[in-house]
Amino acid sequence: MSRALAQSQNDTRTRLLNAALQAFGSRDYDGVSTREIVEMAGANISAISYHFEHKQGLYHATVAYLSDILKAGMAEQLDSLEAWLKQASAEDCAEKTCQFLLHFLEHILLGEIGKHAPGIIFREQNRPTEAYQILFENLLGPMHRSLAQLVAKYRGQSEKDPQVLYMVHTLLGQTVIFRIAQTTLLKILKQKHYSRENINGIKSQLRSQYRAILDTQPIPIHSN
After folding, report:
1. CA–CA distance, 72 with 70 (Å, rounded to integer)
2. Does domain 1-53 have CATH number 1.10.357.10?
């Protein structure tokens, strides 16, 4: 295969993935047609069978593509974490937790990937398909484990302690709500988009909440 042909095929595959990310990010799987995707990508209908075999293969590849993009954007936070933890103080871990989460916030609020990623991620959370395993193994699982390591080191607990895992889930929930429910907040703010001032204010609010959550002690629940 010539270099030019290989590059052309790679470009076609990438265009299909970007088109599919936009389509699947805005509508359910059944509401998206392969013809729509190839038209958006400027490709032939046969390109889907050539690169992905079928629509489901394209969807799975799109989820993997999305996971890779988001994970690459957080590589600095994820890479070499275990080695870093060996010499990190408790306060270092608290600060790293805040930085990690605020960096993730920027990814889901800003840029093209932020427009389409939530539709796929949140749909797979609510109605998981076979593609959820791809999302979990490539992105969600590593994120959760990394945060659990940081929280556990800060609190002096095991990263497998259920309280630590609940806390990580709470921290993530506090973060993603500003994307999941942004329509409501923007309506209340009487705006169409978050401004830089809004985002800075959200980050300041979240940082305070993160620190409060990290220092939370569980209140015993007594049964009657």
Report:
1. 5
2. no
